[in-house]
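Data availability (excerpt). The following record was deposited with the supplementary files.
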Amino acid sequence: MTEPKTEAPATEEEQQNNIQFHVSPDLDYVYRDVFNVYVGAGDVVIEFGNIHRAMPGHVTISNRIVISVQNAYTLIQTMNHALQQAQVQLQRSLQAQQQTQQQNSARKKAGS
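Predicted structure:
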């Protein structure tokens, strides 16, 4: 008689890949000029703020986010990956624009 198969519990990474994010349609976008990062024994604190326009050299911290060290590493990796993809897409877009400009120049010269 064979024993029934049991699946191993999902790893933390697999669980994170299965998370569904729900974003409220009225979520505010806020822009920040500066940030500070503090690393403690078990967590990372990221502060975001804005430079005072009326008082040069002064900053007001508006948001403070605390995440685990592991989530900080995940954040770094995710941001690096997203920035690399954006850079590749931008390079492709610029190359396509340059090719279009070269083709248009060649057509103008051929039509002259």
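Summary of structural features: The radius of gyration is 24 Å.
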